[in-house]
Design goal:
It is a single chain. The chain is about 35% helix and about 15% strand. It is an alpha/beta fold. The longest helix is centred in the last third of the chain and has 37 residues. It starts with 7 loop residues before the first strand and ends in a 26-residue tail after the last helix.
C-alpha cells in the first residue's frame, strides 16, 4: 500500500506531534534524526511513521518529568563501542560513558543520574540480559531511559522487562536518544530568531548553569590558574573561561581582555558547547559565520579562536575554555590535546563546586533536623577560594 498525503508531514506538523518548537523540529530534521527529503520547492518533508517511531515517552522537562542528566551510559562488547563512539559524536547534547564490563557500568550508573542506558545484546549475552532486568527493577532509575539493542528475532520482546525499549540497531538507539533530549520545559531558551546554534536540550543546560552557582561570582584562583596556563601553553594573548546564559557570554576568568561579558550573539563558544572536542576557526574574517561578528569586524580585531567545552557533574556543557588571537593560526595535535586537558581540569573544578554545595546543603539539613546540635562548617567546605593569586593576573 502506498503512502498517502496524511502519512507525509511538514516541519510544523512534526513540531506539533513532538510538542516542540518549529526551530527544534527543524534542527532534528536537518540533523538527520528524522529521515527527510526535499520537495521540488525546497521544503523538507518527513514520514509520520518515522516521527512516531522515535517517540518513546515524555521528554525531559515535560510537566511531572524529572530533570535527568545529559549522561548516556553504554554497555557493549569492546569491538562495538567504537561504533557507538562515532554515532554519539554527532549528538553534542549528551556526554557518553562506555563500558565493556558490566560491573564497572553498574558502579558508574550508581554514581550518576544517567539520562539513558543502552545495553547492546549483539551478540546475545546472559550477563547483559540480567543487567537489563536489574536496571528495570531499580526504582532509583525511574527517570532513566533503558534501551536494549538486538537484531530482529534475536531476543523475544517478552524476554525483556517492561521498562526496556527494544531497538534493532545502534543507529536506532542513537536516534531515539537524540529525540529524547528535546526540550519541552523552562527556562525559555534563546528566541528562534537568534543567529547562533543552540542545543536541543538548551533549557536543561541553562538549569545546569544556574545550578552551578558560578554566574556573576568573584574571581577564583583555581579558574584563573587554568586560563593563565592556557594562554602560556598555547601562546595566546587572550584566554577565557566562559559561561553562556540565554543572553550573555560571561567570563568567569579572563586573561588579556578587559570586558567582563558580551552579548551571547557575539560568542564563538555557542559552537564550542555543541562539540565533543576542540572547536577552532583558523581565520575568523574568512568564515561567513563570524565575518560580521563585532568582535571580528570591530576594534577588537579577533582573527583566531579555539575552545573546548566545560561540563558539570551531570554532563551538561555549561561553558568553555578558549583562547583567542589577533592573527590567523592553526593548532597542532599537541596543542589540541593540551586545550582539551585544560578544559577537563576546568570541568573538574565545576564538579568540585557542586560537591561542596551538596555537602553544605546536607550539613544545613542535618542542623535543622537536630536542634541544639548545630555544627560549624569545616573551613575546607566553607566555599571555594575567592582570591586571585598575583601569579595569575586576569585584570
Amino acid at each position: 500500500m502506498g503512502k498517502t498525503d496524511k502519512d507525509i508531514l511538514t516541519t510544523a506538523e512534526t513540531a506539533r506531534i513532538l510538542g516542540v518548537s518549529v526551530r527544534t523540529a527543524q534542527l532534528l530534521i536537518e540533523g538527520g534524526s528524522v529521515p527527510s527529503w526535499k520537495t521540488p520547492g525546497g521544503h523538507r518533508r518527513v514520514y509520520r511513521a518515522d516521527v512516531m517511531g522515535l517517540i518513546e515517552r515524555p521528554v525531559p522537562g515535560a510537566p511531572g518529568a524529572p530533570l535527568s542528566s545529559a549522561t548516556v551510559i553504554i554497555v557493549a562488547l569492546p569491538e562495538r563501542l567504537s561504533h557507538y563512539d562515532r554515532l554519539f559524536a554527532g549528538i553534542p547534547e549528551c556526554t557518553v560513558e562506555a563500558f565493556d564490563n558490566v560491573h564497572r557500568a553498574l558502579f558508574a550508573i550508581g554514581s550518576v543520574r544517567p539520562h539513558a542506558i543502552i545495553v547492546d545484546l549483539e551478540p546475545p549475552d546472559a550477563e547483559r540480559e540480567r543487567l537489563l532486568h536489574s536496571l528495570s527493577a531499580n526504582p532509583s532509575l525511574g527517570h532513566s531511559r533503558i534501551l536494549a539493542v538486538a537484531a530482529a528475532g534475536k531476543i523475544a520482546s517478552g524476554d525483556l522487562p517492561g521498562r526496556v525499549v527494544p531497538v534493532e540497531t545502534a543507529e536506532q538507539a542513537a536516534a531515539a536518544i537524540r529525540v529524547s533530549l528535546i526540550d519541552a520545559g523552562t527556562p525559555t531558551p534563546p528566541p528562534a530568531e537568534t543567529m547562533f546554534p543552540i542545543a536541543l536540550n538548551e533549557s536543561q543546560r541553562l538549569v545546569a548553569l544556574e545550578r552551578s552557582g558560578l554566574l556573576d561570582t568573584l574571581p577564583e584562583e583555581a579558574f584563573d590558574r587554568l586560563t593563565w596556563l592556557a594562554a602560556r601553553t598555547l601562546d595566546a594573548p587572550i584566554a577565557l573561561l566562559t559561561l553562556l546564559t540565554p543572553t550573555r557570554q560571561w567570563f568567569k576568568s579572563r586573561i588579556g581582555l578587559d570586558t567582563p561579558e558580551t552579548p551571547r550573539s557575539w560568542a564563538f563558544c555557542n559552537h564550542t558547547i555543541l562539540q565533543k572536542g576542540v572547536f577552532s576557526v583558523e581565520d575568523l574574517p574568512s568564515d561567513p559565520r563570524f565575518a560580521n561578528n563585532p568582535a571580528v569586524a570591530g576594534d577588537k580585531g579577533f582573527r583566531f579562536y579555539a575552545g573546548a567545552p566545560v561540563h558539570d557533574n551531570e554532563g551538561f556543557a555549561v561553558g568553555s575554555l578558549c583562547i583567542i588571537d589577533r592573527r590567523p593560526r592553526k593548532l597542532d595535535d599537541g596543542e589540541r590535546r593540551a586545550l582539551m586537558a585544560l578544559a577537563a581540569l576546568a570541568s573538574d573544578e565545576v564538579r568540585l563546586r557542586s560537591m561542596e554545595r551538596q555537602l553544605r546543603d546536607a550539613l544545613r539539613k542535618a542542623e535543622r533536623q537536630a536542634p541544639g546540635r548545630g555544627h560549624t562548617l569545616p573551613v575546607e567546605f566553607a566555599g571555594p577560594a575567592r582570591k586571585t593569586h598575583d601569579a595569575f593576573p586576569t585584570r
